[in-house]
Design a protein that fits this description.
four-stranded antiparallel sheet; 4 strands; globular; alpha+beta; SMI1/KNR4-like; 122 residues; Knr4/Smi1-like_sf
């Protein structure tokens, strides 16, 4: 289902000469997964890793899905990426929010966040 929406967004962006980001490589995911565990103390869900394999971050019409922070990428992305680690470090300035991993947000009116409750890594 989400893959169909991604195809729609890709077609809309192409009309304006823009390209969506490619998915992350296996090496990028390995390095990033290790950094997330070290810096945020969490194991990423398999479903989240699958999303990153398909598209590494997305900004569309005020809706943002965080991607792999650029310091962990082998090559420059097609479009800007809001990094998951950097974004969560900002969210975590509020102690209560450390129980969640934030995977996206919105800059549109009626702002919302996308997160899931953390299961602390051992």
């Amino acid at each position: 289902m989400w893959q169909d929406k991604l195809i729609e967004i890709e077609k809309l962006e192409a009309r304006f000469g823009d390209k969506l980001n490619n998915g992350a490589s296996a090496q990028e995911l390995r390095i990033f997964t290790k950094a997330v565990k070290e810096r945020l103390n969490i194991d990423l869900l398999p479903e989240h890793l699958q999303l990153l394999r398909n598209i590494n971050g997305l900004e569309f019409n005020g809706f943002i899905i965080y991607g792999i922070d650029e310091e962990f990428l082998d090559k420059a992305p097609n479009a800007s990426i809001t990094g998951l680690i950097d974004s969560n470090e900002i969210w975590y300035e509020n102690e209560h929010q450390k129980q969640y991993l934030f995977i996206g947000d919105s800059t549109s009116p009626g702002t919302f966040t996308i997160s899931y409750q953390k299961h602390i890594a051992n």
